[in-house]
Queue: 4 jobs
Job 1
Amino acid sequence: MRKSLKVLSLALTLCLVIGIILTGCGSTQSSTPETEDSANTSGTDSQVPGNKDSVKLTFTYWGSPNEKAAIENACKQFTEKNPHIKVEAIQVPGGDYNAKMTAMAASNNSPDTGYMTGDLGDTWANQGKFVNLFEMLEKDDELKKEDFLDNIWFTIAPDNAWGIASAGECFGLYYHKDLLKEAGYDSLPTTAETAMNWDEFVEMLKKVTLDKNGRNAADPNFDPNNIKQYGLMFETWDNPIYNFIASNGGAWTSEDGKTLTITSPEAAEAVQKLADLINVHHVAPSPLAAKSLPAMNIALQSKLTACAIGGQWINLDLGNEKVNFDIGVLPKLKKSVTVGVSGATVLFKDSKNPEEAWQLFKWMANPEGAIELYSSGLWMPTMKKWYTDPDLVAKWVDANPAAHPPGFKDAMMNQFLNNGVQSPQFYLKNNAKLIPIITSAWDDVWMGKKTAVEALKEAEPKALAEFQGRYDR
C-alpha cells in the first residue's frame, strides 16, 4: 500500500512538473512572434497592427503652406499604410531651421528624419550624426542606390552619403509667351542640341527689353535709364551663376578635387558675360534696380520681365497664377548643362526607432507617397524611373499642365536627367565658408566696379585658405 502511494505521489509530482514546464514553454512561444514582428518594420507586414508595438516618429522640414499641406498628407498616408507608426511632422521656418535643429540636438531630442541644410549638415555629418544612406541601401530589399539619380547624394566620402536631395531641382529659362511673341519669338529652344549660343541669347534679350517709350535695347535711341520691361532677371547666389561657369567648362575644383578652379579664366569669363547683360547690354536689372522689383515669378506674371533664369520650384506659383509661360533650355557657352540643387533629407543616427525611420525615409523619397509635391510643380523626383517610365511621368507632369508647360519635359526634366551637374553643396568641403568668399567677390562685378578677372584674383588668397578639397574624390 505504501509502495502504491509512493508511486502515485511520484506520478502526481511528475505531472505537476511537466505541466509547469509546458505552461512556461507555451508562454514563451506566444510572445515570440510579437517580439519578432516588432523588430520587423517593413511596410509589407503593417496591415497587422496588433502584432506591432506603437511607434512615434518626428519629421522636421521647412517650406511654403502648399509644401506643408503636402508633407502632412504624405505622413498621414504613411500612417494609413503602417498603422503602428505615428508621425509628427514639424514645420520650421527656413531662416530658423539651423537654430531649431541645434536646440533639439542639445536637448537630446533630434528628429528621426527630416530636412537638413547644407552647411549644418556638412558639420554634423563630420561629427557622425547621420546614418550612411549607402549602407542602408546596400542591405535594403526594396531600394538600391542605382534606383536613384547619380547627382543627388550629399557625401563625406565616396562610400558615405549623409543625405539625399529632398527633391530633384534644376534651372531653366522661363519666359512669358505673350511678350516673346510680340518680339517675333513663338517659342525658345528646349533641348541641349538646339540651345541658343550666347550671341543669340543676347540678341533675343535685346528685342524683348523695352524702355518707357517702347524702344527695345537694339534700338540706338533706347533709354537704359528708363526701362519698363527687362529682357531677363537672374539671381546672383552661387548656383544660378554656376550654370554658366559649368557651361563654359569651369568648375569649383579640378576633377581630382585637389585644386580650386572657381577663379579660373573659364569661370571669370562666364561671370563677366552675365555682368555685361546688366552693365553693357542693359537687358537685366542692376542689383540696385532689382531691389525695387518683385520676385521673378511675380515679375513674369506682371510683365516686368520677359525672361528669367529660375529654379524649377517656381513652376508651382506660376501654375497656380495661370501665367502664360513656358520654359526653354538655358543658353550655352561651350556645353549645355543645368545645375542640380536641393536641401538634404537625412536619417539621424540617434533615432530610437531606426528601422521605422528608414521606412518613413523611403516613403518620402517615393513620389507615390506625396504625388502633389511633384504634380504641383514644386519638386521633381530623385528616382530614375519617374523620368523614364511614361506612365509615371504622366502622374506628375501630364497631370498638371498649368505647372508643366510644353517645354518642361525637354528643357528641365530630360535636361536634368541627361545634363545635370551637381551644386557644390553636395561635395565641396568647407563649402559654408568657401562659397561666400566667391559670391561676395562677384558683387563688385555686378555693380560694374571691377571686372570678373580682377574680383576673382583679389578673392583667390582667401578662397585658397579655406579650400579643403571635395568629399567624393
Job 2
Amino acid sequence: MEFSRLAFYALFFMGIVANAQVSPDCGNAVPICNDTPVNGGTMGLGIDDFHGSSTSGCLEQALSGSIESNSAWYRFRTGASGQLGFNIGIDTSEDWDFALYKTSDCNNLGDPIRCNFFDNQDENRFIGVGEDPTGAPVNVQFEDWLQVAPGEDYYLMINNFSNNNSGFSIQFSGHIFVTNPYDALDCSIVNNLLGPPISACGNDTVVLDATTTGAIMYNWFMDTGTGFAPLPSEHNATLQAIASASYRVEVIRPSGNIISEVQVAFSVMPIAHPVSDDASCSGLSVYDLTQKDVEALGNQPPDEFVVSYYGSMTDASAGTNFLPNQYPAQSGTQTIYVRVSSIDNPKCYDVSQSFQLVNLETPILDFPSEAYLCHSTSGVTIGE
C-alpha cells in the first residue's frame, strides 16, 4: 500500500504547533524510538546539510552539486547497552544510500560511523546495519553491527537519487531488543503529541491519545491518500485507529490550538503453513533452506512476507540468530523452526511451524560387498 506523505511539521500560526515525519533537513530530523511504517518517499534535499562539502564518508556529490538528492533525516537516542542495528526496507527496483552519524549536533556531524553507497543491482529488499533479515549469505548493502551505550545520539540520513521513489521503512534490530525490549531506545526525544509513526499488525489495537491539559474539545481527521477528512463523531481525547492512514488531531484550547499528526500502518499478520520433514542418507554438507519457503508461505505473496529459519523456538520468536539460507547441515536429526514475517513490519509474524531435518551418512563397509557360495558350503559369514 502506498502511504501519503505526512506532515509531522513544526509551525507557529494562531497558536498551532505541529511536527514533521519525513524531513529533508538534519535540523528538523524526525525523532523515532521504534520501527516506522513505509512512508510516502522523499522529494528534494531541503537545505544543504553538508554545507558544500564534496564527500561525507562513502557519500559523494551528485550531479546537482550536493551530497543529498532526495533525502530523509531521522534521529534516535539509545536507552541501553548492547548490539544495535537497523533494516531499511525498500523496493527491490530502487537504489537507496544511507549514512549514520554519532552526534547530537547537526552543525557538527563529523564522519559517518556507518555508511553505504552500493547500488542495488542485486535487487535486495533491505539495506542497513547488522544482518539482512532474509538470511541472504552476502548483502554488500549491510554494514557491521553497532555496540552502543545508554544516552548516545545518532542521526540517520537516507537518500535516493530519484524523486520518483516509493519510500522505505525502518526496522530496528539487534540483541539489545532481547535484553531491553521496552527501553532499548529513548522515547523522551519524541515531542509530537501523537507520538512517532506507528507500525502495527492487523489484529493490534491502536489508540491515539491527544489528552492535553486545558483542552475544551478535540477534532479528529483521517487521510487515506486523498487529503484529510474530518471524523464527525470523534471529539474525545482518544481515538482508536482502525485503518492504515495519516491521523490528525486539532486540540482546541483557550491558550491556543494544537495540531498533531501521525502515520499508522497496519500490516497483514502472516500464517506459517506446515512444512514437511526432509531427510538425506548421503551426508549433506549444505542444505538449502529456501526450498522450504514455498511450503511455509502457502499462497501468500513472497514479495510481502519473508521466511527465516532458526535453531530454537526462542530465537525464532525473538527473530535473532537466524540460520543462513545455505545451512551447514549437522549430522543426525535437527529441529528447524520456521518464522514467517511481514516485510513491512517484522513484528507481525508466525512461528507455529517447524520441521525435522535428518542428515545421515551412508555407512562405509569394512568387509567385501559380495560373497560367493558353492553348493558344498552351508553359508558364509558377512562382517565380523
Job 3
Amino acid sequence: AATPAFQDFDAYVAAGGYATLKALRAGEISRDAVQEAVQAAGLRGMGGAGFPAGRKW
C-alpha cells in the first residue's frame, strides 16, 4: 500500500489518524476488535522472523 505524504501531525489527525485509538479510549470499540484489526492488517515485526504483530499483543 502507498504511504500518504502527510506534511505534519495535524494533517495526519485531520485525515483520520488515531481514529481507532480515540474510539478505543472512548469505549466505542473493544481491545479485542483492535487486536483483530491488527491481525487482519498482516503487520509484522521488524525482526528477522517477521513475527505477526497482532499475536504479540
Job 4
Amino acid sequence: MRYQIFQKLFILLLLPISVWGQQNETISQYLNSLDKGLEVSLLVQQPTGEILFSMNAEKSVPSASIIKIPILMEFFRQIESKTLHLDQMYALEAKDKVGGAGELQNLEENSTHSLEFLAREMIRISDNTATNVLIGLVGMENVNLLMEELGLKTTRLNRYMMDFEAIEAGKQNITSPAEINKLLSIILSGVELSTSSRESMLNMLLACADKSTIPGKLPEGTRVAHKTGTLSYVRGDAGIILNQKPIILSIFVENFETLEQADEIIANIANLAFEAYAN
C-alpha cells in the first residue's frame, strides 16, 4: 500500500463507542436551547477514539479552511518520503497570489520562502496563497489518495482556495467531524510518524491565530492545537485540547446569522466539553 506510514491508524478507529454519561446532558441542553434553524455537527472523542459526544458526526459539510489539515498531512508525508524538504525554497510568482486570508499576497514577486514557512502560514493565518502553492507542490490527487488510503470516504480536496470558477461549477472541499477527528488522532498519536513531523504539525496547529472558537472560552493558558474554517454559510473548528486529559473535537455550524453567533456557539460547546471531559 502506497501510504504505509499511516496504516496503523485503523487500530485506533475500530475502538468501541462509549456509553454517554450525565456530562452529555449539559451539552445536549445547550444544543436544545439553540435556534432550531441552526445546524450543528460535532464530535468529541478521547485520543483512544472513544466517543464522548456526537451529533451529526458523519454529516458531510463544507470544510472551508479546515481542509488545510489534510493538505498539511500529505505535505508531511512527502517530507518523510523525502519527495519534498522543509528547507526547500520557493520563489513566489504573480500567478500564485490569491485574495482572502493571508499576507503572502502582499509580498513582492520572486520573494523566496521555505516550504516549512508556507506550511506554517497555511495553518497560522490560513494563508490562501501559501495553501495553493502547497497544493500545487504536493498534488491535489495525492491529498485525496491519502484520504482514500486512510479509509475516509467524505473528506476530499476538490478545488484550490479562492477558485470561484470551480465554486460556480459546484466543486466544494468537504469533510465531516468524524473524519477530521480521525486525522487529528493520527497527528496526536504519531502513528508511524517521525517525532519531528508529529511535533512540527502539532506546533503549527498550536500557532493557529484564530482564537475565537474552540479556545474562545477555555481557561487562560489552555493549549489547543486546531484549525478553523470560515465561509459565508459555514463556520468550523477542529482541534485537540492538550489538557491533562486530552480530547479531540470538531464542530461545524451552518445557517448562522452572524459570524459572531457561530463563534459563540463553538466556544460554548468547546468549553462544556472541556469541563466535562478534559478537566
